[in-house]
Specification:
Beta-clip-like, three-stranded antiparallel sheet, single chain, 29% strand, alpha+beta, four-stranded mixed sheet, 13% helix
Amino acid sequence: MMLVRTYIAPSTVEGVGVFAAEPIKTGQLIWRLEPEFDRMLSKNWLLSAPSHFSEFIARYAYPAPNDPETLVLEIDNGRFMNHSNSPNTDFTKITEGYAKAAIREGEELVCNYNEFDPMHELLPSFLTGGSHRADHPGPRH
C-alpha cells in the first residue's frame, strides 16, 4: 500500500501513472506490502476466473514474495506505478519501497519491475495493443 499521498494522471511513460501529491524525501518509505490491505490471490483461483479478470490480473498483479502460488493485487494507486530502467524508487527489499532521491510534488513515481519480479519483461507496445507488459502475471507496481 502507498504510504504517501498520490494521484493518478496521464503518464509520459505509458497510459496513466502514479504521481506524488506531496514532496517525498530521499530514503523515505513510500510503499509497504500490507496483506491486510493488498489483495492476495491464489494462482489456482485464477484458473476458474473469467478471461477478462485474468487479463486484469496479468496487467496489475505480481508474484508474492516467497510464495510462487500467490499474486499480489494492490487496491490503491500503487498498481499504476510504471516501469523505468532509471527509477526514482527502490524496491530491492521487495516488501518495501523507498524514494531513491527527493521526489517533487507532481513528479511521477516509477520503479524497476525486475527488482521484485524476476519474470518481468517489457514488450513493444505495437505487440501488446498499447500495453508494455508480457502475457504473464507480473508487476504493474
